[in-house]
Amino acid sequence: MTTLAETARSAVSAPSAAAEAVTAQLSVRDRVMAYVALTKPRIIELLLVTTVPTMVLAARGLPALGLVLATLVGGSLAAGSANALNCWYDRDIDGVMHRTERRPLARHVVAPRNALVFGLVLGVLATVELALTTNALSALLADAAIAFYVVGYTMLLKRRTSQNIVWGGAAGCMPVLIGWSAVTGTVSWAAVVLFAVIFFWTPPHFWALAMRYRADYQAAGVPMLPVVATPQAVAVRIVAYSWVMVATSLLLLLSGSGVIYGAAAVVLGGMFLREAHLLLRRVRRGETVAPMRLFHWSITYLALLFVAVAADQLL
Length: 315
Fold this sequence. Notes:
Elements: H1 4-13, H2 17-24, H3 28-38, H4 41-59, H5 65-89, H6 91-94, H7 112-133, H8 136-157, H9 164-168, H10 174-184, H11 189-212, H12 214-220, H13 225-228, H14 231-250, H15 259-285, H16 292-314
């Protein structure tokens, strides 16, 4: 039996005359905004929030402004490349899911070939920019992040295993390594700890979102954990990863972070654990779950934790 996702793939494999007409009618501004949307700016913002504090920690103070700007530009180009290529490959299921149906390729406002070229060009620009303005290691790490997100997560893991976001989420941890290496030319223990914090943060963050949009992923044939496991099993794993994440965040105290960061890690971690356990309790009681509450808090948690990383060095 033909699935809804297969039907969507057939529909997008050959752009219709109607779709081409829609593209032709776009204003210059709309075309530009469509390409910007391919890069998923909101995701890039979160990645940059983790990069700058990491650079402050690596420099044990304020790094050179030019270096920070160069790293942010290169990191944005690399993330934009990965996101655009993800949109290109996932255009079939994006058209099926309500959460992503407004993306440019799903609406046929950008041709697939153009999106592919755009994503590849951004990747090349990221590599060149980082190599010239920071160092070869940062450029190599950016390339690794792009490759892992596009090939490892999008092409190989996402549609095959419920562990997709666990391992695929490693790509989202790379900005801390890029930021650290841009300052020091190396990757140290502290950078690895920050990498691990984001690694263990990603599953609770994304599984909460996937619980909310479970029907979307099911319709698209994507085996996100909430699609293949019971709500209670998902909530238990969210709690488990949350505990590991908080414990990992405290390891940074062994790398020179002080009282400000320590207090923030304990308080913010406690609040995160409270939300995770509240989600589990509601699932067990059969109450309204409201997983987006944990999803939104997870973003706030990560942003504030990394602000504390920087504040601890500057204050």
